[in-house]
Design brief:
Order of helices and strands: EHEEHHEEEHEHE
Helix content: 25-40%
Largest sheet: 4 strands, parallel
Strand order of the largest sheet: 3-4-7-8
Number of domains: 2
Radius of gyration: 20 Å
Length: 191
């Protein structure tokens, strides 16, 4: 019989994130204890390590996720199911999206929700659509926003928005509030 006495499993990582290969190795080693017929106790009494929150995906940099909205049905829905539906396909637990900043960040440009300080539009871009599709399939998915760039006005014409933290924070907070007000999306984290 197998008895687990701890409520959380912590994965110990030395020097960076756990790769999929390392995670597989850890799970394989742990599974050996489950097959032995003896009690296996897993604890986090030491308080060290990170909590494993799940597997996530990223949509940003004007990349290929932009093309997904243009796929014909039923293919688009099938791909979204494979990405976000629990216990099916990738079953992503986390979706991190770029907070568009009207700038070339990698493969393309994602539009900002505020081209100018008094210009708010929470329907620009495709990340809103992608987050809503993810939520439809998995209401418990964790949503994260990350600005990779900022419109020029945020930095008052400079390429460094952090000289004006009140403006930068307001820009990001407005995106979070717009996600809730216009799309009923709860953003759990920003980076």
């Amino acid at each position: 019989s197998v008895r687990l006495r701890a409520r959380r499993v912590r994965v110990f990582v030395m020097g960076g994130p756990l790769s999929p290969v390392s995670l597989s190795a850890v799970l394989l080693l742990l599974s050996g204890g489950f097959c032995s017929g003896k009690d296996y106790v897993l604890t986090d009494d030491g308080g060290l390590g990170r909590v494993f929150d799940g597997i996530g995906g990223l949509s940003g940099g004007g990349a290929t996720s932009r093309l997904l909205v243009n796929y014909e049905e039923p293919y688009r829905s099938q791909i979204l199911d494979f990405l976000f539906k629990p216990n099916f396909g990738a079953s992503l637990h986390i979706l991190k999206v770029e907070i568009g900043g009207d700038a070339q960040t990698t493969d393309g440009t994602e539009p900002s929700h505020m081209h100018y300080e008094n210009d708010e539009n929470y329907f620009r871009g495709y990340e809103w659509w992608l987050m809503k599709e993810a939520k439809k399939r998995n209401p418990n998915i964790t949503l994260i926003g990350l600005p990779w760039a900022f419109p020029g006005w945020v930095g008052r014409g400079k390429n460094w928005p952090y000289d004006y933290p009140d403006v930068t924070v307001s820009y990001v907070v407005n995106w979070i509030l717009g996600a809730k007000q216009y799309h009923d999306l709860d953003i759990q984290y920003v980076g």
